[in-house]
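Dear support,

Our group has been running a series of protein-ligand predictions, and this particular one with guanosine-5',3'-tetraphosphate is the one our PI (initials K.S.) wants archived with full inputs and outputs. We had some confusion internally about which version of the output was final, so please treat the block below as the authoritative record. The input we submitted was:
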Amino acid sequence: MSSPTTSATTASGLADEVARRRTFAVISHPDAGKSTLTEALALHAKVIAEAGAVHGKGGRKSTVSDWMEMEKARGISVSSTALQFEYGDCVINLVDTPGHSDFSEDTYRVLTAVDAAVMLIDAAKGLEPQTLKLFQVARDRGIPVITVINKWDRPGQAPLELLDEIIERIGLTPTPLFLPVGIAGDFRGLLRRGDEGAATEYIHFTRTAGGATIAPEEHYTPEQAEAREGEVWVTAAEESELLSAAGQDHDQELFLAGHTSPVIYASAMLNFGVRQILDTLVELAPAPRARNDVDGKPRATTDPFSAVIFKVQAGMDSAHRDRLAFMRIVSGEFERGMVVTHAQTGRPFATKYALTVFGRERSTVDTAYPGDVVGLVNATALAPGHTLFVDKKVQYPPIPSFAPEHFATLRAQSQGKYKQFRKAIDQLDSEGVVQVLRNDTRGDASPVLAAVGPMQFEVMTARMLGEYNVETQLDHLPYQLARRTDAASAAELNRQRGVEVFTRTDGALLALFSDKWRLQYIQKEMPELTLELLVAGTE
Ligand code: G4P
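Confirmed final output from the archive:
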């Protein structure tokens, strides 16, 4: 492609920048070791000199992102940000995902911004609910997944048992690139698998004090490995051959198509296997690719600048009371200060304040390329799913909303605060903190909030108070599920007991049901009514 860009970078220079980028997210159940791995990756990329520097000993979760008291109290990270680092010739963007399942809608949005995912599994616990749910999201989005089996330094299951679990429970074929030498709890190193499962190399790791620094590696031939490790090496080599016989060897095409997943065994805490994770990302994960617009037409990465907003966040740091919109660049070069068009309104948007944010660290971004994540300051008109572009108009498909399962009404405690209340609702709604539903019967003074998880309500009320100074009252509603309906069905549905129809801010008509039996009864008795699942696969 030789479309002109608006900057000084030549078309081939831009293509080179795209080719060296890898943008990924880690998906895992809380406590699988996402923060520890993030820190270990940063250590290997020399972003930090010692593990523990980012998080602080014993206080890891409270310092990664402490924009909200609730995060501290709950030990969760609500805010999604991105860490960029250079590794060899590559530029790696690690986009953070919220750790708690109540925020899986945010995670879904983050996954629209990445080209690959690392599925992190705790070796002792195996597949956990949140891993399964997030994996499904990655699959729905067609994102290739690399599997990391973490905490191999602790006693746990046998290596092949875990792989069977992946096949049986998620239907993905795991294809280990490395197998552990030493059982779980006695992690000595990694066997590198070559063609047809033949061991090509043994990488032995040495522990460092507290896992604070990179674990030194020694490399041995298979013969040397057998002489050194004896039985444990022979076992690993045999396992590798068994996997090969079962067809579990890496195949790049099948990986990119989402059928197989390369596997690496690791200990994020000891920094064992972390370099191998980075090397795998560089070698196997895809670079940014063309993205289809709403009409299905692809925008090449070397076309003029365009980007998708995938996250809006306000009040991330008490020292900066602002609103940041995070965009993932899809095509072209971004230069701070360039004036872009906001596709949803057709209005120009000046990008004077462009930042990267990770935890508390903020730095100005002057140029960025496809795959990069940039935060735009005080971008009040921007919402998740929106498009920015220059030159040839483009608009990317909206990000679908999740099916909410929790519902509550919200109203201002004091009548006098109604104006602020309205403003806050509109802003937090456009950020995607919760979904906001209204109908004529209930009126506007107490809209209905719909959430995937109840902690979203806590974020909503805490932010109403903290940022808008509005005390609110939340009353839970006895509804459990929602279906999309249409105007023709709405009147009949509203006549039913245990059902209420609302309009969501995006215009969608949602019917809420008290329970699944009521829904099933109505579907059976009145099959002519339109009742569709909101996002396939989320219930
Ligand atoms: P998360 O972000 O996925 O929630 O997990 P996090 O990194 O906070 O790790 C959860 C716990 O698991 C932490 O222990 C962490 O030290 C431990 N952990 C992470 N990776 C490994 C590993 O490879 N091996 C072992 N043995 N443990 C690991 P904690 O006791 O909750 O916290 P801390 O006091 O150690 O920080």
